[in-house]
Specification:
- This protein is mostly helical.
- It has one domain.
- The protein has four helices and no strands.
- Helix 2 packs parallel to helix 4.
């Protein structure tokens, strides 16, 4: 049962991560109008990704004390690459350090809260 749950969680995480990547790489002229603040979208998007990774680690029995730091490091690096690749000429989006800050803040918030919640459930 545990391995089936873990597979399900990792599959959902991978699908979400792919959707997030696709969403951040839609060429600028094709972007639909969105009424939500861009930084809020970054914060929530990366927070959900961090939470999904933590839940997947928990479901697969791989959640460790250092997992939060690892998730944070991976998503900080990924967020930087994500921003940088948006500036490629055929994507024509902006590479914005404030977007990366929102990615980092969402990730850090999810890591702190998610780690705390998952650890509390163990006791």
């Amino acid at each position: 049962m545990r391995s089936g749950l873990a597979r399900f969680c990792w599959t959902l995480t991978a699908v979400y991560w792919l959707a997030l990547f696709c969403g951040t790489h839609i060429p600028a002229p094709q972007l639909p109008p969105i009424r939500v603040n861009d930084k809020t979208i970054h914060f929530v998007g990366y927070g959900l990704l961090a939470g999904a990774i933590l839940v997947s680690l928990k479901a697969s029995g791989r959640l460790r004390t250092s997992s939060g730091v690892t998730v944070l490091a991976i998503l900080l690096a990924y967020g930087a690459v994500d921003e940088w690749t948006q500036a490629l000429p055929f994507i024509n989006r902006s590479c914005d350090i404030a977007d990366w800050h929102a990615d980092a803040a969402g990730t850090a918030t999810a890591v702190v809260l998610g780690s705390w919640i998952l650890r509390k459930r163990e006791t």
